[in-house]
Every structure is written in structure tokens, then in C-alpha cells.
Amino acid sequence: MHKAWEYYDEIASRYDYMYEEPYWVLYHMLLEKLVSDQNIKGKILDLGTGTGRWAIKLAEEGADIVAVDPSEKMLSVAKMKARLNDVKIEFINAKGEALPFENATFDSVLAMGDVISYCESPQELLSEINRVLKPEGKF
Questions:
Q1: Taking the chain, what is the end-to-end CA distance rounded to the nearest angstrom?
Q2: Which of 73, 78, 85, 88 is the most exposed place for a label (fewest CB within 10 A)?
Q3: Which residues of 67-104 are buried (b: 16+ CB within 10 A; e: fewer)?
Q4: What range defines the domain where residue 86 resides?
């Protein structure tokens, strides 16, 4: 059985193109509105960043972003896109169930898409999110 990150390694180079159909364009427009309405500030963890769509958007708005993904190839695409968009993002190759951060590090944690369903242990993932999120943080 393949791990989710292995699948994403295989499709990393074409991932963004898979979401150019009208349904996905509208879906992402609605999500962008929802994310903007949350007024997310401070240090943000983008968990399961994939190709960096949300990390780059928030970095362009001035947020301090740390982007994590278990797929090295997805991170490679995200790093390239961040360079092209001239934004500073810290990228880390790690699984959400074992985050390499101190307790209460982040003001907000994003886990966009199906991040929770793709992890090996949803309970461990949620526990890690709770651990790295500041007491009044947003998830």
C-alpha cells in the first residue's frame, strides 16, 4: 500500500495543472475568501503545504510562514514557486504526526484540503497540531 506522500511525489510536477478546471478554480476562489476573512496573522504553519498555494498567498500578505509536507517533490515545486513569487517561506520535509517544533510555536495552523485524511494517524496529527498551536491560536 502506497503512503499518501508517495502518490504526491509521483504527481508533484503536474499537481497544479490538475486543478485548473472551472470547478476547482471556483473552489479555490471561495477558499481564498474564507481564509482572507479569518484575518490570519503572526507565525503560521501550513501543514500539508503541497505546492505552496496557501503558504505563498499568506506570505505575499506579509505572514511569517512555515510550510511542512512529507512529499519532497511537492516541496520542491513549492520552493520554486516561492522563488518565482519572491516570498520568504521556511520549507520543512516532515510528517504532521511528528512536527519538529517546540510547544506553542504557531499563532495559526492551516491544514487545507484533505490533510487529515491522508495522514497515517489522524489522532496523532491532531495532537501535534494542538501541541504546536499557541493557547489562543487558530486552526
A1: 30
A2: 88
A3: bbbbbebbbbbbeebbeeeebebebeeebbbebebeee
A4: 4-138
pLDDT-wise least confident of 34-43, 55-64, 85-94, 110-119:
34-43
CATH number of residue 89's parent domain:
3.40.50.150
What pLDDT shows up at residue 89? 98
6: amino acid identity, one letter: E
133-138/64-69 β-pairing: unpaired
Q: What is the tally of structural domains in the chain?
A: 1
Is the sign of the CA dihedral 92, 115, 125, 102 positive or negative? positive
SS3 content of the chain, % helix, strand, coil (to 5): 50, 20, 30
Residues composing the chain: 139
Residue among 12, 6, 107 nearest 52 (CA): 12
